[in-house]
Amino acid sequence: MSDAVAAQGAPPCVACGAPLVVHLDHWLLRCPRCGLRASTLAADPVDAHTPGAWDARNARAFTALRDATARRLLDELAGIMPLAGRRLLDVGCGPAWFIAAALTRGLEAVGLEPHAPTAAEARARGLEVLTGRFPDDLPDGVFDVITFNDVFEHLGEPDSAIARLRDCLASEGLVVVNAPSRSGVFYRAAEVLARAGWTAPLERLWQRGFVSPHLFYFDAASLDALFGSAGFTLRRRFSLPTLARAGLWGRIRAGGRLPLPLAALVWGGCQLALPLLALLPADIVVQVYARDRAPR
């Protein structure tokens, strides 16, 4: 399908409004103006055998990285506002790893999780987690901090979600978006490989074939445009390491998509590349926005 044909029926870019065009494969779209990537993967069929976002093996594989991420996020937030006594909502909280960490800093933390068994498991551990989706099932009241940890890229209508944030966020409250970036070295490499005919890495980054695939790949500029149009100002931006040695094998084998020999090759390559990756464009960007003016 040509760019011209695709543009006629493609949706507009949520960040800048330009018509999206097909990019590399039929399910992948690109904004020719700002570079945002979007997908049509939400329309893919799902059945009982479709891999999910969370299971026990996934949770174990990500534990070390999640704990380090939680500490970094909370340290950064503490540099903007005192945390004790503040009310926090973690959207799509999964096993509630961030909720548990937030409680140790004195925050009143609530989670919202669409997967009922995962939410129930968190409640069984004594954490306040509601079953539902953002923004339809928002808890009552307002929050000082609302976090999207590996969630914002899964929202079908991020512009509408941001508009709803103004209703549930305290004056000068903060929104934290922790998301993969299309500017990162892994994403760029995956697109290069896709152009050469090997699409598996790109499909894995988008979680194609999973219950909850990525619908967008933003970068810093597209997130700024999206939040800026809704009346939010960037307060802080930083990156997180894409890989860590602890739990790396479990992450590579998550979902069972890579054959064992190939997984071992990837693991070895990652071990060698870790020092270099710290010097290259990060694949995970965190942006903190403040609600402090009327939307444009």
Query: How much is the average pLDDT?
Result: 85
Strand percentage: 15-25%
CATH C-level class of the domain at 54-181 and 218-241 and 278-291 is Alpha Beta
Specify the CATH homologous superfamily of the domain at 54-181 and 218-241 and 278-291.
Vaccinia Virus protein VP39
Binned, the helix content reads 25-40%
By DSSP (H or I, 4+ residues per run), the number of helices equals 10
In short:
This protein is α/β, with parallel strands linked by helices and 296 residues long. Helices cover 36% and strands 22% of the residues. The protein has ten helices and eleven strands.
3D architecture notes:
This protein has 296 residues and is an alpha/beta fold. The protein has a domain of 166 residues: 3-Layer(aba) Sandwich (Rossmann fold). It is 36% helix and 22% strand. It is built from 10 helices and 11 strands. The strands form 2 sheets. It has a 7-stranded mixed beta sheet with strand order 6-5-4-7-8-11-10, sandwiched between helices. The chain has a 4-stranded antiparallel beta sheet with strand order 1-2-3-9. α2 runs parallel beside α3. The radius of gyration is 19 Å and the shape is globular. 37% of the residues are buried. The N terminus is likely disordered.
What topology does this entry show?
Blueprint: H1 3-9, E1 21-23, E2 25-30, E3 37-39, H2 56-78, E4 87-91, H3 97-103, E5 108-113, H4 116-124, E6 129-131, E7 143-149, H5 158-168, E8 169-180, H6 185-195, H7 200-205, E9 216-217, H8 220-228, E10 232-240, H9 248-253, H10 260-277, E11 284-291
Parallel strand pairs: 4-5, 4-7, 5-6, 7-8
Antiparallel strand pairs: 1-2, 2-3, 3-9, 8-11, 10-11
